[in-house]
Amino acid sequence: MDQSTAGISIEIYSDVVCPWCYIGKRRLERALDQLNGAAEARITWRPFQLNPTMSLDGMDRAAYLEAKFGSLDAFRQMEEQVIAAGVEERIPFAFDKIQQTPNTFAAHRVIWHADRLGKQDAMVETLFRVYFVEGQNIGNVKTLIQAATEAGLDRAETESWLSSDEGVAEVKAEEAVGHRMGIRSVPYFVLNGTYAISGAQTPDRFVSTLRKAEADYAGRKAGV
User: 9 and 42 in contact (C-beta within 8 Å)?
Assistant: First the structure.
């Protein structure tokens, strides 16, 4: 009998400059496909800035990597692991195209806004692609507007919305929830507010936890 994920809500704390978050998205999608639940699970993307103190103008990518990893060589070792995982998940990471490490707060605002329009997952997918595959600066407002348009949002409305302060307080509040939960790294998946998966785990690990969450939901629904 097919498994169902209709009773599962999944909150994903992530940052759009986190390559493992992109990989984790793919692995979760594969797990949901195995359970025939890709269209049934309720997925919400939550903000988690890896670099909350980053300048609004961002930072030169090479300088950022040297500061974070100690040397570019140290980063290259991690990069090889990410690229290998990307090949497995059909993500053509192009780190050499990335010139700027951006401040991602505006990107998280757009993701929050897209959720209200029913296009959040498409927005997240587009931002991952624009940054990791095309190497564009997603801290740039024009880039964000174009990405939003590609994800199905109205260009003029998005431009007007980004020029306002709407969503600023809400995004900050959502991020604060993650910190209060003790989240220190992403991706971080919360299923039905009870089961948590930290990191871009294998599809099998996702399937196992999704089944537990679904069984728990079915039991509560039946009054067990």
Answer: yes
Rounded distance, CA 108 to CA 48, Å?
8
Alpha helix (H) ranges present in 19-167? 19-34, 61-69, 72-88, 105-116, 120-128, 141-150, 155-162
pTM surpassing 0.70? yes
Rounded Cα distance, 194 and 155, in Å: 38
Other C-beta atoms lying within 10 Å of the C-beta of residue 162: 18
> Is 93:82 a contact under the CB 8 Å cutoff?
yes
Residues in a beta bridge with 59: 101
Pair of tokens at residue 96: 């050499």
Question: How buried is 89 (Cβ within 10 angstroms: 0-12 exposed, 13-18 middle, 19+ buried)?
Answer: middle
pLDDT 10s digits, 124-182: 999 999 999 999 999 999 999 999 999 999 999 999 999 999 999 999 999 999 999 99
In order of start, what are the domains of the chain with their CATH numbers?
9-221 (3.40.30.10)
